[in-house]
Amino acid sequence: MYRSRLGKNLGKITLDYVSSINDDVEIAHYDILGSQAHAIMLYENKIITKNEIKKILKGLESLKKEKFDKKTNSEDIHELIESMIIKKIGIDAGGKMHTARSRVYFLTIFYLMLTHCSGILIGFMSHMVG
């Protein structure tokens, strides 16, 4: 995010300050799910082509099996996932993955994660009581 505005890489101290990657790794799976839904929306609204959606979804699906390294030059999980997709499928399709994505997108990701975790907690509590 900041790199693209500044046109250069951030220094280590600055990256350490602005980076949330250490915490974000925990939400990677949910970010992938959100990115898949967003890509489908882009296709349904004719913003990306059928070929591009296939590449993006295949790339995102393959990321579900990846182990995300906290030692990265990415500021956050969203940037890391996008850069990994671009490496896998190329800039032409991968660069469009986050087109028109809102800044409140992260709320959707947290909602997915909290919904999942709440279900696990309720199941555990029912098991303990039952």
Structural commentary:
- The protein has 130 residues and is mostly helical.
- It has one domain: Orthogonal Bundle (Fumarase C, Chain B, domain 1), CATH 1.10.275.10.
- The chain is built from eight helices and no strands.
- Helix 4 packs across helix 8 (105-129) and helix 5 (50-63) packs across helix 6.
- The longest helix has 25 residues, at 105-129.
- The termini are far apart.
Q: Work out the helix count.
A: 8
Name of the CATH homologous superfamily = Fumarase/aspartase (N-terminal domain)
Structural class: mainly alpha
Question: Terminal Cα separation, in Å?
Answer: 49 Å
| Rg estimate, integer Å | 17 Å
Q: Element order, helices and strands?
A: HHHHHHHH
The fold-level CATH name is Fumarase C, Chain B, domain 1
- Tally of individual domains: 1
Number of DSSP-assigned strands: 0
Low-confidence stretches: 1-6
- Per CATH, which architecture? Orthogonal Bundle
- Write down the overall geometry: globular
- Sheet with the most strands? none
| CATH top level label | Mainly Alpha
Q: Please indicate the percent range of residues in DSSP E strands (runs of 2 or more).
A: under 5%
**Helical amount:** 55-70%
Mean pLDDT: 82
Outline:
The protein is an all-alpha fold. It is built from eight helices and no strands. Helices cover 68% and strands 0% of the residues.
